[in-house]
Amino acid sequence: MSVKIGQVKMDSAELRATNHESRLGAVCFLTLGCKVNQAESEALAQLFREANYDVVSSSEEADVVVVNTCTVTNTGGSKSRQAIRRMIKAHPDSIVVVTGCYAQTAPGEVLDIEGVDLVLGTQDRGKIIEWIERVKRERRPQNAVRGIEDAGEFEELPQLNEESRTRAFLKIQEGCNQFCTYCIIPYARGPLRSRQPEKALAEARKLVEEGYPEIVLTGIHTGFYGQDLNNGWNLARLVRELVEIPGLRRLRLSSIEPMEYTPELIDCIVSSDIVCPHVHMPLQSGSDEILVRMHRPYTLQDYRDLLIRLREKIPELAVTTDIIVGFPGETEADHLSTLNFVRDCNFAGVHVFPYSKRQGTPAADYPDQVPKKIKDQRVKELMAVARESKEAYIRRFIGKPVEVLIESVDSEGGAVGHTPHYIEVHLPKQKEITWTSRQLVQVVLKQDYLQR
Ligand code: SF4
Questions:
Q1: pLDDT band, very low/low/confident/very high, at 283 (cuts 50, 70, 90)
Q2: Nearest CA to ligand 1 atom 2
Q3: Ligand 1 centroid vs 156 CA: distance in angstroms?
Q4: What is the pLDDT of residue 72?
Q5: CA nearest 46: which of 184, 207, 190?
Q6: CATH assignment of 149-276, among 3.30.300.20, 3.30.750.210, 3.40.50.10490, 3.90.550.10
Q7: Where in this chain does the record put each MTTase N-terminal domain (predicted)?
Q8: 363 CA to middle of ligand 1, Å?
Q9: d(Cα 72, Cα 104) in Å, to the nearest integer?
Q10: pLDDT tens, residue by residue, 137-170
Q11: Contact at 8 Å (CB) between 52 and 23?
Q12: Is the pLDDT of residue 326 over 60?
């Protein structure tokens, strides 16, 4: 292991004396995995800005490199290791900090990577600057990971201040108590902790004041928001308060487990023009037997009934989902049942994941692990159904007016954005119109505007 000290060539007092702007150095990020990780990297970036660091892109020189890792699948772990090595190679003189879920669950593996200076899990990230100072002082790699099982409170990180984006991620919750048998997340993120509502609302107001037209609520198990607060707050109540924030144009709910769509929450989605008509409801399998073995608390009938209830109220609701293919013991009949169920659900999008063993989870020790070749074939088949389903959903909107929130404009004057139903739209340059980021525009959706 090596420690790269000396990039910050002067201590902060010397710097203050010599540098008008008191910059402490530069930091860059590489973020893997989900929206929660993205939100957390942005919050960490803000922490560095407040400590007088410049936040630069990962291709620029930096004194500190932060790799925010993922471990949802084994691929997550190996992708994380590759990313860490890549960043060490690209920044041989920087202090390399590894954080996130993979760091939390395998700190030893991370510290064994030559060139890592600090491993910090999914808590205590508010102390990242102090830990970096300690690395510099003690001139040896540090392991700042502590057991997550007893983590008690939601960790407040600084408010976001990222100018370039259109959608802001608002993290409202951390951890999960459900322990689905395939999932490493409860071990990586610890128990359910909800953010205090006043803190979440204050951050949302600030984001709107900063000009973000859209906020995406993120968390690990967002549907259970408030359960641990014991003060009467739940997700529906938080959503009702959020949509009242003047100037907020869109509020997008991220993943919510099927059994957590309470009548109150459904009413919030139905009755507000601000809440996007888009829900992500993880299904995971189209076989009841597999759902039981996964420890998922619903049946296919429950899921179907919920879809009917939601679509009765919002016929064009975009419903997206996740499916794990090749869970231990999954038979050909289970797989066919999943294909049929997915066809019947008319999803607007399906994320297909091949099952991958996570050591320490019950399913890793289940017999009848499905061979890779069979899993790959099933993934292919399900992805074909998913593609058809998504195309059929999008076709309904062709020729109709849709609202697009522009997220980026390219050098030729074309723009990319999403509709409230989360359809990605590519707008070509138009003579009389100049697209700008964060602009909400009405267009008639054409086939040509869809992702190619
Ligand atoms: S609900 Fe299940 S899949 Fe989702 S984070 Fe919790 S344990 Fe993992």
A1: very high
A2: 180
A3: 22
A4: 67
A5: 207
A6: 3.30.750.210
A7: 25-137
A8: 13
A9: 12
A10: 888 888 988 887 777 787 777 765 454 478 888 9
A11: yes
A12: yes
